[in-house]
Write a structure and sequence with these properties.
Blueprint (H helix, E strand, L loop, with lengths): L4 H7 L1 H10 L1 E9 L5 H11 L5 H14 L16 H6 L6 E6 L3 E7 L7 H8 L4 E7 L6 H12 L4 E7 L8 H17 L4 E6 L23 H7 L12 E3 L2 E6 L2 E7 L4 E3 L3 E5 L4 E9 L2 E2 L2 E3 L3 E6 L10 E4 L5 E12 L11 E5 L2 E7 L4 E3 L6 E2 L9 E14 L6 H4 E5 L6 E10 L15 H8 L4 E6 L6 H14 L4 E5 H4 L11 H20 L3 E5 L5 H11 L4 E7 L2 H6 L5 H6 L21 E4 L5 H16 L2
Parallel strand pairs: 1-3, 1-4, 4-5, 5-6, 25-27, 25-28, 26-27, 28-29
Antiparallel strand pairs: 2-3, 7-16, 8-9, 9-15, 10-14, 11-12, 11-16, 12-13, 12-15, 17-22, 17-24, 18-19, 18-23, 19-22, 20-21, 20-22, 23-24
Helix pairs in contact: 1-2, 12-18, 14-15
Amino acid sequence: MSVTTNELLATDVVAYLEAHERKSLLRFITCGSVDDGKSTLIGRLLYESKLVFEDHLAALEADSKKVGTQGGDLDFALLVDGLAAEREQGITIDVAYRFFATERRKFIVADTPGHEQYTRNMVTGASTAQLAVVIVDARKGVLTQTRRHSYLVSLLGIRHVVLAVNKLDLVDYSRDVFDQIEAAYRAFAAEIAIDDVVVIPISALRGDNVVEPSARTPWYTGPTFMEHLETVEIDDEVAEQPFRMPVQWVNRPDLDFRGFSGQIVGGVVRAGDRIRVVPGGHESTVARIVTFDGDLAEAVAGQSVTITLADEIDVSRGDVLVAATDPAAVADQFEAHVIWMSEEEMLPGRRCLVKLGTTVVGGTIDHPKYQINVNTFERIAAKTLALNEIGVCNVYLDRPVPFDPYRVNRDMGGFIVIDRLTNATVGAGLLHFALRRAGNVHWQAIEVDRSAHAGLKGQRPAVVWFTGISGAGKSTVANIVERKLHAAGRHTYLIDGDNLRHGLNRDLGFTTADRVENVRRTAEVAALMVDAGLIVLVSLISPYRAERQLARERIGDDDFIEVFVDTPLEVAEARDRKGLYAKARRGELPNFTGIDSPYEPPEAPDVHIRTDEVDPEHAADLVVEQLMSDRQR
């Protein structure tokens, strides 16, 4: 007679752990419309599988009477919905992860919310899933939310779907209703390239076809929900791909050992295999595959190992070990799906950090080519992306990185976007391909460089960046500074923000995204003029610290002087000869800095001028003094 793993737990803990370790692991998500019964299904699954501890069951009974939605009966959704707001509203808000195991398999389930405003939560849950459970209410059939979640499942590379037709008890276990829903969903799934669909009629509340076959659906002869989860074969497509291992850590415990540790995310590696290190391009042979339990002859996708090489070559964290015969591509410009996850809208052109595997690199995201309506799948023109919106954008990185398209390898093609100031994750992306022009556009060597231009003019070039609210006196002071420098024989050029908006930046408005692009373009022009050997004076509100820092980085810290032209708002309004503040107060000028759009003062400007305390001539002298002092260093 065979011994179950639960019996082993009572008699032989070591044998139990060994048996448990050998089980395969299935990661899956549940998704669907609000109130379709996602949390109830998972709760019922845990309950029927005897996977709820006695103290949890007692708490469930008490919670069901207090905040349950089943009239005092056990409300299985409460096993999963843990947030107070979820219990109060009877909905799922955050992603709830649950681990459980049966005799055949281990599972990690992510119960994801159905509301559109929690799309980012669903994307998080789906990012590592191998299978998706899409739940529909038998009374409602395939809804817009069902289509939206299925589209996201397809977009995120999940190819195995279970359609659970729930609440069948509320339609008298009608086979006709079930058949109509199955036909409608299969037709839709074919449109979005989901081929593996299993449809199961269930009642999560009553337990029909969840763990045991239901006598109330004699017309259904397929597997129960649990049986399918235990037996579904997840094609290990990753193991059949070329070898890929991002280096997480250079393991150097002593002078005699140097290995490279990481998790294999594609293919198989064997001792003696020829590998290449990308992006560097050096090649070597695998000498050993080292683990805590000893060396391996081979390792496969999903395993974490340390690899030693036959040759002493340069390998660092962020590099990727790949099959020499089928290496990953390397590029620094891509087209990608971008899913925006921040409360603040995406600002195209703003500097960010992009984490791809173990690599973190600086970059920018361009304006969306189009936004995708996740309910209708139509492509919409857009200048930016707001919370939970998805678009297709070009992504530009500071240096080339190894990658595979996301559809080929999720680990090599998926990335997250990180805010440089807060370190918060603000977006996620799926790489499509490298832009063709990335390999065709190169830096052209120029013999007459910045130092040659500067030498001819007899000066050290610089950018003096005047920032402050409208009416602070930026343009007035900048004009006087240029006049003084010109009189001293210096070669200068004054870039005024208002003047740029008559030409180069005339297509930009005053939204946050347009202001970011306005500063980016101005910084690029200023950088070209510095290369020409000029002292460039920029007078621009430039309200955001991040963009002023971007300008500093573009020019170079040694050649950038930030001048904060400071004055109280009421003084600036009193000087308002153009009447702009008055219009903004009347609501005629939206996004006006200082009124309904923020200004972020410099925290450590090179020069701080209070124009309500000093006259413009004196202020200009302070700037010239700082400039000349810097130029003599």
